[in-house]
């Protein structure tokens, strides 16, 4: 999970420590994720400024599956108008939106794999993205 911040940034001070923890948790939970068609999932998180001007709103953009590398790549964009500047409120917003976007990624990946006759265990994927314990 890579992160790009741009412009005036209310998101960075709130999300930077949470992103590090989420990255650690996801890496640990996906360690045992077993799918013959997916060896790596790369996610890019985009926050604020010029970066998010290419996105209409918070969402998953440019999701791609590379069959030779067995790799799924997606851009997750967070609408820069949603940040309040209140740390706890912003943290809750970020985690809530992140879970929704990760679920969307799972659905997109499942659809891409079904097109090439691979199965995808959505229940196992959902178990791996359970990040409810990040905030105290």
What does this entry look like structurally?
The protein starts with a strand and ends in an 8-residue tail after the last helix. Strand 3 (59-66) and strand 4 (71-78) form a beta hairpin. The chain has 136 residues and is α/β, with parallel strands linked by helices. Helix 1 packs across helix 3 (87-115). It has four helices and four strands.
What does the secondary structure layout of this molecule look like, with pairings?
Layout: E1 2-5, H1 11-30, E2 40-47, H2 49-52, E3 59-66, E4 71-78, H3 87-115, H4 122-128
Parallel strand pairs: 1-2, 2-4
Antiparallel strand pairs: 3-4
Helix pairs in contact: 1-3
Summarize, please:
With 136 residues, the chain is of the alpha/beta class.
Oligomeric state = single chain
Alpha-carbon Rg, integer: 15 Å
Helix vs. strand class = alpha/beta
Q: How would you characterize the largest beta sheet? A: 4 strands, mixed
Mean pLDDT value? 85
Regions with little confidence, pLDDT below 50 for 5+ residues = none
Strands ordered across the widest β-sheet: 1-2-4-3
Write down the overall geometry. Answer: globular
SSE pattern: EHEHEEHH
Q: Give the N-terminus to C-terminus distance in angstroms.
A: 22 Å
DSSP helix count? Answer: 4
Total E-strand runs = 4
The percent range for strand residues is 15-25%
Helix % is 40-55%
């Amino acid at each position: 999970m890579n992160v790009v911040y741009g412009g005036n940034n209310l998101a960075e001070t709130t999300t930077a420590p949470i992103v590090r923890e989420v990255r650690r948790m996801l890496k640990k939970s996906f360690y045992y994720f077993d799918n013959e068609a997916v060896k790596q999932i790369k996610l890019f998180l985009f926050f604020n400024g010029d970066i998010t001007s290419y996105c209409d709103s918070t969402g998953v953009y440019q999701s791609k599956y590379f069959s030779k590398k067995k790799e799924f790549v997606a851009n997750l964009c967070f609408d820069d108008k949603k940040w309040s500047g209140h740390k706890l409120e912003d943290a809750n917003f970020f985690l809530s939106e992140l879970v929704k976007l990760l679920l969307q990624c799972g659905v997109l990946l499942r659809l891409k794999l079904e097109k090439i006759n691979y199965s995808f265990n959505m229940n196992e994927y959902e178990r791996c993205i359970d990040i409810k314990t990040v905030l105290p």
